[in-house]
Amino acid sequence: MLHIQTIQPSIDSKLVTISVMNGKNVLDHAHNDIELIYMIEGNLEVKIKNNLFTLNKSDFVIVNSNELHSFHSEENNLFVIIHFNYFQIRSILQQENLYFQCNSLENTVSSNQQMKDVIEEVLLVYLKESDISLAGFWEKVLKLISFIQLNYLRDRKHQEIKPLLSEEMANERLMEILEYVENNFREALTLEEVARTQYITVPYLSKFFKKQTGKTFSQYLNKVRLAHAVNELINTKKPITRIALDNGFPNLVAFNRVFNDKFKVKPVDYRKSKVGKIENDEKTVSNDKVESEEALLELRNYLECVSPVHPKNESISIETDIVKISKFEAYTKYWNKVINVGYATDLLNSDMQEQLSLMQADIGFTYARFWGLFCDEMHVEDKSDDQVAYNFSTINKLLDFLIKNRLKPFIELGPKPKLVLKSFDQTLIYQTNNEKSLDEWKKLLRAFLLHCVERYGIEEVETWYFEIWGNNIDPIIDIGNNERLNKSDRHDPAQFEEYFKVFSFLKKILNDIVPEAKVGGCGLATDLETEKLDLFLKQWNSHEVQPDFLSFYVYPIETESDRNTKKNVTSTNRDYVKNKIKQVRESMERSGFNHVELNVTEWNISISSRDYLNDSCFKASYIAKNIVDNLNQHVNMLGYWMCSDIFGDFKDSKNLLHGGVGLITKSGIKKPSYHSFSLLKKLGEILVSKGDNYIITKKSGDRYQIICFNYKHFDYSYYLQPEGSIEISDHYGIFENNDSLNISLKIQGITNGRYRIKEQRINREHGSVLDEWLNFGSVYDMKQDEVEYLKQKCVPYMKVDHTFVDENKIVIEGKLQPHEVRLYELNLLFSES
Prior knowledge:
Number of helices: 25
Shape: globular
Oligomer: single chain
Largest sheet: 8 strands, parallel
Number of strands: 36
CATH topology of the largest domain: TIM Barrel
CATH superfamily of the largest domain: Glycosidases
Distance between the termini: 83 Å
Structural class: alpha/beta
CATH class of the largest domain: Alpha Beta
Radius of gyration: 31 Å
CATH architecture of the largest domain: Alpha-Beta Barrel
């Protein structure tokens, strides 16, 4: 007999339901919810589609939305089912077509134990004697969702379909048909309607469907409808006639016939035998204490025996990493080759020039990337007479400043607008340029290049970079506005030809005058599709004129789409930057572009210029983590977006901080992100070792540099809120935890002798303008002497010590605060004689 104790928290009735079950058999059924089954005692046979799993104590398995599944057991048992509302989880994860591959029978022992611990944390919250806490509920449930997403979320295309066609196009078509049936089975669905969606004939679809699934369309449709109806028979009190009609059956007679043919029992008899006691057993948790039931008592007894979880703020301990000084590996410092400075007119701002000069002294970038060089505000074209004349005096001021400060121009050509964004869908500033014909571009570009060669010399100009950008040229998104395209249209190479034409035209002009200058493009979008990128690069590789480098933007943004619309959402992937760079590099290799430079010309955590995360200590560790992660990933440049908050200054930015994306505030105060780049500059040119939280490098002689960091990724409370909407005082409450990091590095093989050890730290107490401003009262009417005070206050912690090394080894130990970045510099003063 089935015994169910259902606990439904009042704090969010739509997100999760937990059921404690004690029973034997449940027929094949399906539902929209994602279902996690976790065994407490005994065993249970779970059939999911055609796969059979035998779960024993502490085993678990996930049943995806709309998957046919059933339970069977020959003995008493106890297990927990957690239902996640599919639409709510999809919204939280901000991803369409969720599909998980998760069962403890195939996972590693380590991942099984981690999953078990997280599940039991959730159960402890539900069953504790005191009232359910809103914060406690969200913390544990969102932690479980986060763990499942990071470890078990897969691309829906990986879902097994039997028999599976070798032809990719047929496989994709079958996936689309099955998904359409799942989304519309409750309607009066016909073979004719499905055929129309696929632009094929009814006879062809009928034959195709039977060949691929082994069932007729009608048989498959009834199977889907029946599975969902069984779920409602078990878990709801709806009348059977209502269940039949709600799940697509034309009438009760048809439902009874299909049900009896499949299960050899009538629906009414099945409901009576299996769920007759649910009404008496079912209870809801709100602010009332849960009554002790047999199943709940067993679960409580079990959870009392498990090991308690670690306190939330307990420091994480790690074993000592042993680093042996033996082989050295050279590497390239790719992260300080280019910095984005924005619109050309921004470079004429005296405050911007002062800040760039300061950055060059502290960090030393090689290139300054900007656009809008020929915009109207630069006053280049004189059209007062019949013939256009060119005046490059304003451009001279810009280029003279850069070269004087040892910055080479990285010029993005084209009518790119100036955008200052508050969020994905809210623009604060949008300035555009007049577009030019190809003939106008030819005359202007030739005149500009000849002028630069004469003024600066061809040896200088040939070291510059030129990135070709074009208005309304985005080779990654689908053409045809938002209309749904069939596969042949989406993969039509003709959609790229306009960009190739513009690129070839401009590159020939550039190469004709400055042959050695690097010319590339085209600023590939961060949400590109791998299949389409492959097509784009292969097509480009077939053209006579090819790029010297491929440029790419990396922001952790993914695109959600349905049949008619697309929208941007923040990615939850903590390794987004590394994964995207790897994806592009692999595509380049497949397309014959493996010899071409890859330049990430823009990267940041967000496109928003109104997000206080940009001012926080989080950005220091985010920068350090991603730069260390992508070492030797074959990236030539990694261009941080942006250098200064002056770029995003607008009428709403009257406060000292406004969440700008710059490394330095508009008033000239260095942010934690600035200090992170400054510490990274101190790294040597030889890589000794790197790990999850550190990097060790070496300079000539016995000089070693160690940077370690305590990066914290967001928890799901961050993704539940609109970008940039978090209050300034709440910006350290949106992370996975607030644990310190105990780091211990034993370096073996170094020269014995006396060493000077210099230590610098960036954390909330040292070098954080956001925290110092909060301590100052976050006042909006800052006076100049107060700004100067914060300039002096917002610097990293620094101390110097000396130690004597014998036995050719030294141990570096430290306890890092959340988001902290720390640098150790070890210099040998004299060796042991």
